[in-house]
């Protein structure tokens, strides 16, 4: 079954702030196998980002290939997700339904204060 990917458009007034350092994404916890991008083979990382838009705030965990991580990316840095997509998911684990939305971006760009205004 093909997964639905939904392009996410952010308002120009949206502010995104990195909440964590990039964390290497592990595909298999038992073997320690690292998750990689299917097209490029680059290692995948997750970054928790706080998105503030229209008086609301949300926390997103965004998966980004290593090649898309800006130099100097650290908690508190303003970022702009490029080519951000959302993929809804659901699974049954131990008889309980779990569901959510996975976010993926091609890269996270650092935003300067001048560019944010």
Largest sheet geometry? 9 strands, mixed
Give the integer mean of the pLDDT values: 92
The computed structural class is mainly beta
**Quaternary status of these chains?**
single chain
The N- to C-terminal Cα distance equals 43 Å
Number of separate strands: 11
Explained architecture:
- With 117 residues, this protein is mainly β.
- The chain is built from one helix and eleven strands; from the N terminus they run E-E-E-E-E-E-E-E-E-E-E-H.
- Strands 1, 2, 3, 6, 7, 8, 9, 10 and 11 form a nine-stranded mixed beta sheet that branches. It has a two-stranded antiparallel ribbon with strand order 4-5.
- The termini are far apart.
- The mean pLDDT is 92.
Chain-wise SSE layout:
Layout: E1 6-7, E2 15-18, E3 23-24, E4 26-28, E5 33-34, E6 44-53, E7 56-65, E8 78-82, E9 85-93, E10 96-104, E11 107-110, H1 113-116
Parallel strand pairs: 7-10
Antiparallel strand pairs: 1-9, 2-6, 2-8, 3-6, 4-5, 6-7, 8-11, 9-10
Summarize the model shown.
The chain has 1 helix and 11 strands. It has 117 residues and is mainly β.
Keywords for this structure?
117 residues; nine-stranded mixed β-sheet; two-stranded antiparallel ribbon; globular; mainly beta
């Amino acid at each position: 079954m093909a997964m639905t990917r939904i392009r996410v458009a952010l308002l120009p007034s949206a502010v995104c702030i990195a909440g964590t350092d990039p964390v290497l994404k592990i595909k298999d916890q038992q073997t320690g196998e690292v998750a990689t991008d299917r097209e490029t083979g680059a290692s995948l990382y997750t970054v928790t980002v706080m998105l503030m838009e229209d008086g609301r705030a949300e926390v997103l965990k965004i998966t980004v290939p290593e090649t898309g991580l800006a130099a100097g990316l650290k908690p508190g840095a303003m970022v702009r997700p490029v080519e951000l997509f959302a993929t809804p998911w659901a699974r049954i684990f131990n008889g309980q339904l779990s569901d959510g939305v996975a976010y993926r971006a091609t890269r996270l760009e650092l935003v300067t204060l001048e560019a944010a205004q």
